[in-house]
Amino acid sequence: MGSSPPVFIGAEEVEKHLRRASLLLPALEAALANFSAGAAGGVVQPLRTVVPVQRHGGFLGVMPAYSAADDALTTKLVTFYEHKKDSSVPSHQATVLLFDPRNGSLKAVLDGSVITAKRTAAVSAIATKLLMPAFAEVLCILGAGVQAYSHYDIFTELFTFKEVRIWNRTKEKAAKFANSVNGPVRVCSSAQEAVTGADVIITVTMATTPILFGDWVKPGAHINAVGASRPDWRELDDELMKNSVLFVDSREAALTESGDVILSGAEIFAELGEVVKGTKPALPEKTTVFKSLGMAVEDTVAAKFVYDSWSAGN
Predict the structure, then answer these.
(1) Largest CA distance in the chain
(2) Beta partners for 268?
(3) In whole angstroms, what is the distance from residue 92 CA to residue 63 CA?
(4) How many Å from the N-terminal Cα to the C-terminal Cα in the chain?
(5) φ/ψ of residue 297, rounded to 5
(6) Which of 217, 146, 140, 133 shows the shortest CA–CA distance to 185?
(7) Contact, 212 vs 203, CB < 8 A?
(8) Helix, strand, or coil here: 160?
(9) What global pTM score does this model have?
(10) Average pLDDT for consecutive 10-residue bins of the chain (314 residues)?
(11) Which of 168, 169, 262, 310 could disulfide-link to 174, CB 3.0 to 4.6 Å?
(12) Strands (E), 1-57
């Protein structure tokens, strides 16, 4: 018998199995801790390979990983294109390939865009649970794309905020966001207005120069910095980067890929997995930044979760 052909699990089906991103929290917490445990954690994850497509202002990223704890082997292929006039095409598109680690057969091809949105928001939520101030009342989201929606969903599910604010470069998209989510959202006319007094701030933009400035930020606030995934792109200014306690998903990736980390010269205090494991303290009383670049092993555990859930139903 030859191996059976791979199954294709499209966006709607992935969405069905990941309706709540919080379902991924246990697997992602374990993956972060295992990654930060080094060889003992059993995560094999090289730095992502990024191919610039200069002629069209785009990039192709290749993100393979193996997790021994999950016995799961995947690679994600992701494209991201800046400032497209044709906004019918999302800035980020992705596909995840799931292999049988016992023999290398391709078991499944999964839509990677939903996986990316959900796992990224879930990891930001893990960071926030550990790092946010004790009495957080105001949530601020800068950006109104796919990641703004996935972050809003899990943050309003897990935490109780008295107020949610949003700002976006084009106000229409922020207004559309406010009208389409379940709870009340205040649309702000400037990033500064949105940020002032906020306890938790999420930056999910395609900005290439800073849009969030240290002198706007309330002392003790927690920031999840999710955009700016290139070494020459920024979302946060030097003042904020240098006067906060900086947490990252991967030290190696942050020092190679994050313009906010590289160009500010800010010192990395810990990987999020070290805080999850308890080998580094969280320091929620300080102003904290979690610089999220996204890791292949997050896609690995999310894709395995979806595949296992899909298999159980088939």
Answers:
(1) 65
(2) 246
(3) 14
(4) 21
(5) -65, -25
(6) 140
(7) yes
(8) coil
(9) 0.94
(10) 83 93 93 96 95 93 97 96 72 94 97 96 98 95 95 96 96 94 94 97 94 96 93 95 96 95 96 97 95 97 97 89
(11) 168
(12) 7-9, 43-44, 49-53
